[in-house]
Write a structure and sequence with these properties.
Elements: E1 5-9, H1 19-28, E2 35-39, H2 45-52, E3 57-61, H3 78-83, E4 88-91, H4 94-99, H5 104-116, E5 120-125, H6 129-133, H7 137-148, E6 158-162, H8 176-201, E7 203-207, H9 212-219, E8 226-229, H10 236-246
Parallel strand pairs: 1-2, 1-8, 2-3, 3-4, 4-5, 5-6, 6-7, 7-8
Helix pairs in contact: 1-2, 1-10, 5-7, 7-8, 9-10
The structure holds phosphoenolpyruvate.
Pfam family, one: TIM
EC number: 5.3.1.1
Pathway: Carbohydrate metabolism; erythritol degradation; Carbohydrate biosynthesis; gluconeogenesis; Carbohydrate degradation; glycolysis; D-glyceraldehyde 3-phosphate from glycerone phosphate: step 1/1
């Protein structure tokens, strides 16, 4: 039985004021039957970790460098995230792949860095609209998954988020059949590569315009173990409604 996960990605949103939303969330979930994760901007991770201590809400980073230390101005290592109180890190979000030219090979190196630091890596994949229109979604996802996951990935260290790029922040979502098709495909690829135990144990999140109104039907879809949520994770009330749809 895979533990469900509701993960929020605040992206480049939030200064100290945003901690009031986190406080509301932690007060609402002193404990929970599902895993809950908030990934605030790096500047808030240590304060968010303190605020979330003793609640069911875990804190994560939105990216990490593949190296432990070094001359990488502006970057943050997985160890630094861990030191600031993070337990998870998002790796290979499409905004990192597109805005920063991150390749799947680099993402695999970042995932290994996350494992070495004791962080759970939320590894993202997803197709652009043109890829879907060309009928190449599964081929594209298969390649991204194959190249972005280290051989050492397992169910304790790795979560995969399927996020169609055209659904992120647009209000558009795939049909439930399209979500199921991709999630079932990813599950089969994982089992093929890692075997039944690990392949069936790795959690698969859907991401892309998840909101309170569509969360329940998405969560009822085949091989969907939760969601990676952007915009609707910024307000505690919205994110709580999504968490409640997962329970
Ligand atoms: C995301 O950024 O991972 C995301 C899914 O964003 P949104 O929920 O706003 O579409």
């Amino acid at each position: 039985m895979r533990q469900k996960l509701a993960a929020g990605n605040w992206k480049m949103n939030g200064t100290a004021d945003a901690l009031s939303e986190l406080n509301e969330l932690t007060q609402g979930y002193p404990e929970a039957s599902v895993d809950i994760l908030i990934c605030p901007p790096a500047t808030l991770i240590d304060r968010a970790s303190e605020a979330a201590a003793g609640s069911a809400v875990a804190i994560g980073g939105q990216d990490c460098h593949a190296n432990v230390t070094g001359a990488h101005t502006g970057d943050i290592s997985a160890e630094m995230l861990r030191d600031a109180g993070a337990n998870y890190v998002i790796i290979g979000h499409s905004e990192r792949r597109d805005d920063h030219g991150e390749t799947s090979e680099l993402i695999a190196a970042k995932a290994t860095a996350a494992y070495n630091a004791g962080l759970i890596a939320v590894v993202c994949c997803g197709e652009h609209l043109s890829t879907r229109e060309d009928g190449k979604t599964l081929e594209h996802i298969g390649t991204q998954i194959a190249e972005s996951l280290p051989d050492t990935a397992n169910a304790d260290t790795t979560v995969i988020a399927y996020e169609p790029v055209w659904a992120i922040g647009t209000g558009l979502t795939p049909t439930l059949e399209q979500i199921a098709e991709v999630h079932d495909f990813i599950r089969a690829e994982l089992v093929k590569r890692f075997g039944e135990k690990i392949g069936n144990g790795i959690r698969l999140l859907y991401g892309g315009s998840v909101k309170p109104a569509n969360a329940a039907e998405i969560f009822a879809t085949s091989n969907v173990d939760g969601a990676l949520v952007g915009g609707a994770s910024l307000k505690a009330a919205d994110f709580s409604a999504i968490i409640d749809a997962l329970v």
